[in-house]
Amino acid sequence: MDIFSGLLHGFSVALQPANLFWCFVGCFLGTVVGILPGLGPAATIALLLPLTFKMDPASGIIMLAGIYYGAKYGGSTTSILLNIPGESSSVVTCIDGHAMARNGRAGPALGIAAIASFVAGSVGIILLTVLAPPVALFALQFSSPEYFALMCLGLALVVLLSGPSLIKGLLSLLLGLWLTSIGTDLFTAQSRFIFGQPQLLGGMDFVVIAIGVFAIAEVMASIDAGDKARMLPVPKGLRNLLPSWEELKACRFAFVNGSITGFVIGVLPGAGAAISSFIAYGIEKAFSKHPEKFGHGAPEGVAAPEGANNADSGGALVPLLTLGIPGGGTTAIMLSALVLWGVKPGPLLMTESPDVFWGLVASMYIGNVVLLILNLPMVPVFAQILRMPVHILFPIILGIALVGAYGVSGRLFDIGLLVGFGLLGYVMVKLKYPTPPLILGFVLGDAMERALRQSLTMSQGDLSILVRGWISATMLILAIVILLLPLFGRFNQARMKAIAEGG
Amino acid sequence: MSKDILRNGDVLSGAVLAALGVYIFMESRHWVYYGDDGPGPAFFPAWYGVAMVVLSLALMVTTIRNRTKAEATDWAGVRRALVAWAVFAICAASMFWLGFFVSFAILTFFTVAYVFRQPPLTGAIIAICAAAGFYVVFPFALSVQLPTGVFGF
Amino acid sequence: MRRCWVPLLAALALLTASAGPAQAQFKPVRTVEFVVHGGPGSGNDVFARQLATIIEQDKLAPVRFQVVNKPGGGSTSAAGYVVSKKGDQHVIACFTNIWLLDPLVQQAAVNRLHDMSPIARLVVEPALVVVLADSPFKTLGQFIEAAKANPGKLRWSGGSITSRENTVRQLLMQVTGARWQFISFPSGGERLAALLGGHVEMMIVDPSEAGEQIRAGKFRAIAQVSERRLPGFQDIPTIKEAGFDIPNVPQMRGVVGAPGMSAEAVAYYEDLFFKVSQTPAWKKFIEDSQLDGEFVRAAQVKPFLLSFEETLRDILKVAGAKVIR
After folding, report:
1. N or C terminus of chain B: which is more exposed, having fewer CB within 10 Å?
2. pLDDT surpassing 60 at residue C24
3. Is some CB atom of chain C closer than 8 A to the CB atom of A189?
4. Looking at the complex, does the CB of residue B98 fall below 8 Å from at least one CB of chain A?
5. Any domain includes A481
6. Which residues contact C83 (CB under 8 A, 6 or more apart)?
7. pLDDT category, B68, cuts 50, 70, 90?
8. How many domains does chain C have?
9. Which domain holds residue A388?
10. How far apart are CA C210 and CA C221, in angstroms?
């Protein structure tokens, strides 16, 4: 079946009233789950799985996929409004999204997030439709040395996330690297830095740390600032609630960048949506004409990561549907769902169950439109939340943060961690240590250590394996260039100064 | 002069991070650095531990050498923030006995009435409404489990 | 019409009689907590929800069975939770090998499986040893010979050091003297991708996953990790049949109760899960996922766990893991 007739067949499946209905239900549930913390897409799918046993496999997968990509749409809402990242993929959105909200541009930030999600989500599906088999083969080229190089490239972005003091940025990154090694070492079952706490054996969850360091610290900092910053400004009038033409124009490149970066990284089974959103943000800032605006409410800083984490859903389905390889937590459940319905996920899925494959792909085109229609009208409504007086808003933020942290694995221990990381985040803000590098280190550190150790085990300690492939070599060189940029910058400044003083 | 240096946040935090770096490095000495099959669990921590010591010392040295003056700190604000955090921490701890809703209501009450200096009645009303609202959204509508205490809710 | 009742009643009488010692005095009176150590959607979670769904659909119990996820630290969070419910007749958990393994290698994992109340072993999961379809290795023997010729050059992908993949490798290396590398990946997807991309030479994978890759002509199975040949893979020898005399390493799933559970309650749950194992829905699930569904009763589970722990301890020591208990 070629692509065109396949897609046509897919639409004939997806446009059946029942399937349209399930697509809508999935998208709606996904949006709700994405907005509210405490119940991630993975948990929702697992809970609803028994209900889908009686459904047709095509309807079932259409609904579950709706939850999966719908949750990523909704994830940006609490990030932008309350600085609470509900999902790991929306942490980066907090940086500029919440800064925009503080500048009174909460509505436009939400609008840009929805539009970026739509554009990149659609691009991701188009790429999934036309490129799935060749891209899957590309993903298989990625071995541990390539993953190591990718993580190095990601860590090099610290330079762009650091703010005025590079040393403080690097220290924050190292703190993140340390936090990520807490727990049990995969290779040797050696427990590291657990302070005798069995609860730490599995390591800490990224969402707990991010909520503590971002949301709780933000609340404390606002209380510290007292009357000076009591309320977030929310200008009246519909015009101020939707993105302006200038803002959208500024995001042109970010839409493209987010789509492609998100899709390419999403295809790799060993890299998650959080990584693709960080890298898209880094690329955006590196190529921006005014990088100084990032972190203070640049619309591109919302569009790029939000786009990336939605294009990532299309990418992550490539190895799942063409090779039977699940990329992460949520796609792994979708895989077991397929098995329970009696559909055999694997290389033959596309030819043997065209209803499922093409029906799903076509439903995702429809789902993206549904999500845009569901989300855009909600923007002005959500923006009103910030009009609440702080003495009502702050308890709600604290409550949502508590539910979000507890929801990760249902233990009070995580709430204790949340309290601790809240204080850490506040101290870091007070002492002007940037917090995004800490999260970056935490996300990438573990994967980087693993990839390095896998590579060296494969080569029996021969370091040259890291640069043997052209993909890994290119990425490593790029990482080094990015890391050295500020040094050149400083050197340049010093030279200019010397010239000026000499003249 | 020397007193100022000791009060400087960069110097203090640098010292704390240097100590953490030393701890990480010493801890990693207990584990295998390089095993038969490749790098061991100590490989990575040893390197970032050393890097942490070097960078934090660099931070301390540059701060002291440049005599960077810390900006004046609004200690009243810091105290307010820390009080709010302490309330948060105590309520979080009390969840073990009181469950989510009671603790959250108490947290809300104290945040509204003490941190934001609203009348106690306003605080009580907001506390009850917030707790009820969370109950309706999470356990009731979404069946998300929240911590329960001795009262069973 | 009336005549139909007679054989039915007789069958019913026979069934209750055959339950024998499991004359259940105990009946659960409130929702039973069914603890699993993975998050929603993990293998164990899906397994437990399957059991709970069957109990609900066939109305085998008077109360609901609610799956409670206690992820974190392998099995340690879940085991800690179960032990904290000591004496509770309404808390059961789904255990796997990792419940035995964690206390052996983790100082902080203090709760051991055989101190709880084992109820039944429900399934053993067999596995296949696979290579790429265009690989030069047609048999396990050829792979071992090649590994002997080039020590440390060949590679297996698998999970952590305590996983079955590594255990089988250690046992094989012990009996043959060959040596090859073991590359740990945290997720099944990455292990599969590593073999498909040709970055490793071999892996051990469960038959439902491997079956599709084999059918698509990507993988070739060269041996199976199982006591006897699987129905779907009659022409593939087990490791023992391939000429390597190592003990089979079963990957098991079963049910355990909170410590101090009364004998009546254990008997009740044992009987309940036996009934589940006889339902058509369960039999279909076992067949679809190519599991070995032999039901092992409480009386046999405990001695089995103790002896199996002994085997695992020896293997781990050889593998170079720090065994502390």
Report:
1. N
2. no
3. yes
4. no
5. yes
6. C111, C115, C116, C258, C259
7. low
8. 2
9. 3-214+237-502
10. 8
DSSP string covering C36-105? ESS-TTSHHHHHHHHHHHHHHHTT-SSS-EEEEE--STTTHHHHHHHHHTTT-TTEEEEEEHHHHHHHHH
Cα–Cα distances (Å) from B151 to A63, B96, B131, C31, C204, in that order, read 38, 11, 15, 18, 49
Would you say the C-alpha torsion C69, C73, C75, C77 has a positive or negative sign? negative
CB distance C288–A342 less than 8 Å? Answer: yes
- Shortest distance, CA A399 to any CA of chain C (angstroms): 22
Distance from C-alpha of A433 to C-alpha of A426, rounded to nearest angstrom: 10
Q: Does B8 lie in the same domain as B38?
A: yes
Q: Which residues of B45-80 are buried (b: 16+ CB within 10 A; e: fewer)?
A: bbbbbebbbebbeebbeebeeeeeebeeeeeebeeb
Q: What is the ipTM of this complex?
A: 0.93
C-alpha A377/C-alpha A372 separation (Å) is 9
Q: What is the CA radius of gyration of chain C?
A: 21
Angstrom distance (rounded) from CA A66 to CA A58:
12
Are the C-beta atoms of A416 and B92 separated by less than 8 Å?
yes
CA A474 to chain centre: 24
* Region for residue A259 given its phi and psi (left: phi exceeds 0; alpha: psi -120 to 50; beta: otherwise): alpha
- Amino acid letter, residue C110: V
Q: Is residue C18 part of a domain?
A: no
- Tell whether B38 is within 8 A of chain A (Cβ): yes
Return the CA Rg of chain B. Answer: 24
Is the CB of residue C232 less than 8 Å away from at least one CB of chain A?
Answer: no
Inter-axis angle of helices A470-502 and A144-156, to 10 degrees?
A: 20
Pair B58, B19: CB distance under 8 Å = no
Q: Answer yes or no: do C181 and B37 touch at CB < 8 A.
A: yes
Q: How close A136 comes to chain C (CA, Å)?
A: 10
Residue C276, pLDDT score? 95
What is the CA angle A136-A255-A335, rounded to 5? 35
Digit-coded pLDDT (tens) for B4-27: 655 688 899 999 999 999 999 999
How distant is the alpha carbon of residue C52 from its chain centre? 18
Averaged pLDDT, C140-169: 91
List b or e across A302-323, with b for residues whose CB sees 16 or more CB atoms inside 10 angstroms. Answer: bbbbbbbbbbbbbbbbbbbbbb
Residue B150 falls inside a structural domain: no
Cα A320 to Cα A318: distance, rounded to the nearest angstrom: 5
Domain closes at, from B66, B92, B116 = B66
pLDDT tens sequence across C160-210: 888 888 889 988 998 999 999 999 998 888 899 999 999 999 999 988 788
Closest Cα in chain A, distance from residue B92 (Å):
7
- Calculate the CA A292 to chain-centre distance: 23
Residue A314 lies in a domain: yes
Q: What is the domain range of residue B97?
A: 75-141
Query: A371, A118 in Cβ contact below 8 A?
Result: yes
Question: Is B45 in contact with A192 (Cβ distance < 8 A)?
Answer: yes
Let me know if A191 is exposed, middle or buried by CB neighbors in 10 A (0-12, 13-18, 19+).
buried
Which of A 402-441 lie inside 8 A of C, CB atoms? 409-411
Distance (Å, rounded) from C-alpha C112 to C-alpha A359? Answer: 48
Minimum Cα–Cα distance from A451: chain C residue? C185
Q: Which of C:171-230 have CB within 8 Å of B?
A: 181-182
What is the share, in percent, of chain A residues with pLDDT greater than 70?
94
Task: Give dist(CA C13, CA C5) in Å, integer.
Answer: 12
Are residue B34 and residue B83 in the same domain, yes or no? Answer: no
At residue C8, the pLDDT reads 44
CB A234 within 8 A of CB A383: yes
Query: Which residue type does A106 have?
Result: A
- Cα separation, C100 vs C308, in Å, equals 9
